[in-house]
Write a structure and sequence with these properties.
Blueprint: H1 2-22, H2 55-61, E1 79-88, E2 91-99, E3 108-113, E4 119-121, E5 138-147, E6 150-158, E7 168-177, E8 180-189, E9 202-209, E10 214-220
Antiparallel strand pairs: 1-2, 2-3, 3-4, 5-6, 6-7, 7-8, 9-10
Length: 221
């Protein structure tokens, strides 16, 4: 009798435990620690601006506004093309091809900044396309290097007419400061014959190696 009684008691205990477990609420998962922040937002696709045909309408469509735009010339809004950055002593020198406004054949202009929020615009061209035509009737992209106390601006000279044997050569302007340059007449680099290219030879990227006192650069053939 005692053994049966004990068995009944054991069965009842098991049933009570099972019923208690079924009625138990699920606990919410612990909150993420405060230092983990909010979960990342789901990314969205880029807007389609392909139907906007002018630079002005495209820029107006973007919400981003922290960028440099040249001052309006009269009623014309010039635009920035092919930036050529140079950095020295806390200042970023942003050379660029200025398209439109008072710029002749997208000459090279300059804007400087220390924080990419405020900019100082230079009104006059740093390297102007030759108004009389010639090998640099159109100025093209280049780069600035400092060699000792002299600044060298290697830029692309795009010929003003199809009659030139070489449509593009690398040309040079020199300056004692990074804000003023003078063209070096008669100085140019012609595309090497082995590359078989007389039309596309542009965008020189120059580097100065102080140890060997040489300038090394590459160009887009």
């Amino acid at each position: 009798m005692n053994r049966k009684f004990l068995c009944v008691i054991a069965v009842l205990c098991v049933l009570c435990l099972a019923l208690t477990g079924c009625g138990k609420k699920e606990e919410a998962p612990p909150a993420a620690p405060a230092d983990q922040g909010e979960p990342f937002a789901q990314g969205v696709e880029d807007k389609d601006f392909s139907g906007l045909r002018t630079p002005g309408s495209q820029e107006a469509a973007y919400e981003y506004r922290a960028f440099f735009l040249p001052a309006i010339d009269g009623i014309s809004q010039p635009y920035v093309g092919d930036t050529m950055p140079y950095y020295e002593d806390g200042t970023y020198y942003i050379y660029y091809l200025k398209e439109g406004g008072d710029s002749y054949n997208h000459s090279i202009y300059l804007s400087t900044t220390k924080d990419f929020v405020t900019y100082t615009e230079y009104d006059d061209p740093i390297v102007e396309s030759a108004r009389s035509g010639g090998q640099d009737g159109w100025a093209g992209t280049g780069s600035v290097v400092k060699v000792k106390d002299e600044y060298l601006f290697f830029y692309t000279g795009h010929a003003s007419a199809e009659t030139y044997e070489y449509m593009e050569k690398i040309m040079l302007a020199k300056g004692n400061t990074p804000t003023q340059f003078e063209k070096v007449e008669g100085w140019d680099i012609t595309p090497p014959a082995e590359i078989g290219q007389k039309r596309d030879f542009r965008d020189p990227q120059a580097y100065y190696d102080a140890e060997s006192d040489t300038i090394i650069f590459s160009s887009t053939p």
